[in-house]
Amino acid sequence: MTAFTARTVTDQSVEYPNRFLVDGVSKTITTDFGTVTAAGTSINKAYLQPIEDALAELCQVGHTIATVRTDLGDDWLLCNDSEFDFDTYPLLRDIARADMNGTVQTSTALDAVTATEIKFLNGYYVTIVGTYAGGTTLYYCTTLTGTWLSTALGDTYTDITYQNGKWIVYKAGSTALAVSGAINGTYTVNANIPAAFYSNTHAGMNAVIWDESSSCWAIVCEYGMYTGADISGSVWIERVDASKLASICVAQGYYIIPGEQVLWYSTSLTGTWASVATNLGTSRQARQIIYSEYYQCWILLTNYSSGNAGYVYYADDFLNGSWTYSLGTGSGYQYLYLVQLGNLIGLRLFNTTTTPGYFKYTTSLKANVAWTSITPAGSIPAYVSIIDYKLIISQPGATTNRITYRAMIRTPAYTSDDDYKYIRGK
Q1: Which tens digits make up the pLDDT trace of 358-403?
Q2: Which DSSP helix (H) or strand (E) runs through 56?
Q3: In the prediction, which pLDDT does 124 show?
Q4: Nearest CA to 395 among 173, 127, 152?
Q5: 81/143 Cα distance (integer angstroms)
Q6: Are 302 and 314 in contact (CB under 8 A)?
């Protein structure tokens, strides 16, 4: 914020401030003040603009003031490290820093079933009940603590998405994919998925997206990326022919698919794809890439060649192959996934059998500090999601309170014996 310096405003002074000239012929009255004895303050753009800028800064969401007043109204929130209504203060929600100090709350709504990862799609919290290997029933609810309803999927699936008006369930490591027009409708299997989607025991679908600019679907498989106009159709065109493709990122005008020691990229889903080496060695296989608006950089997740450890790197430009190391996890974790919320970057880790899942996070990615760990109790594994500015942990291994959650955005903390500090919220 540019500092504003108070200025003295003076009036113009004239020799005869109250003298006027009356013309009886033309019947007009004009001023006749004589000479100007003091110019006074010139009120023009150069003078007024700093005032406008200072007022605009003061009115910006996120601006803080210190005062002993307590009558500022609901546009201002006390900086006392408290949670606030995200819908009432949406702009403050988007600029506030995230952390993990929110009050942990619980939900027993899914204690009777083994919920896996919870997602929020088209106004519903959803989860496929089962194990890491998949489930046959979809549970859904508009709130975390409400009454969850269920619908049968007809087969075993590991993941769900909602895009372009369609609910889609699919299974990693196979060609199983089914589509429904309603969350509780009939999920119809696409029996026309090409055999190329599943070329060996390590293949299968890892991501499904709809791309509005290309008006087509994309399916990322272990051994290729394919596009098609109809998710239920049989016509699919291979766009990327490579091995161990794991996910897809759409950010900063690029489509990026990690695969082994390279990143495949294009500015068009159906256009020409190229690859750039990560230069991290053969033991670091690229699995996921995201872009952080907060840190203005790319964040890359790799795992060890044997698939049991994770490593996180970041770079300002993914094309130059120069990555800075940020995190290395211990062994024994086969399923890793990056999540982000503003300044908070998190990594979900879990195994399938004996190693408890946990969550590692940092709120200072580029500060070269150790990441903090959270180990949910009674969870083998633990599924972690960030939804609606909350960290949500689904713990199918627990006997009660299988869902825990906490708000990750709150007002800043500030204490003083002499005054109060407020932040503008709207």
Answers
A1: 788 898 999 888 898 887 665 455 788 888 888 888 877 677 778 8
A2: helix 45-58
A3: 96
A4: 127
A5: 25
A6: no
Name the one residue in this structure whose structure tokens are 């100007």. 36
- DSSP string covering 156-219, please? EESEEEEETTEEEEE-TTS--EEEESSTTS--EE-TT--GGGG-STT-SEEEEEEETTTTEEEE
Q: Using the predicted structure, report yes or no on whether residue 202 has a pLDDT greater than 50.
A: no
pLDDT value for 330: 67
- Dig out the tokens for 270 from the structure: 């159906």
Residues in the chain, total: 426
Would you say 13 and 32 are in contact if contact means Cβ atoms under 8 Å apart?
A: no
| Residue 416: per-residue pLDDT | 62
3-state SS, residue 267: coil
CATH superfamily label, 105-407 = YVTN repeat-like/Quinoprotein amine dehydrogenase (2.130.10.10)
Quote the CA–CA distance of 160 and 167 in Å, as a whole number. Answer: 7
Contact (Cβ atoms closer than 8 angstroms) between residue 394 and residue 113? no
Record the tokens describing residue 298, joined without a space: 């790319």
Q: Where in the chain is the domain with CATH 2.130.10.10?
A: 105-407
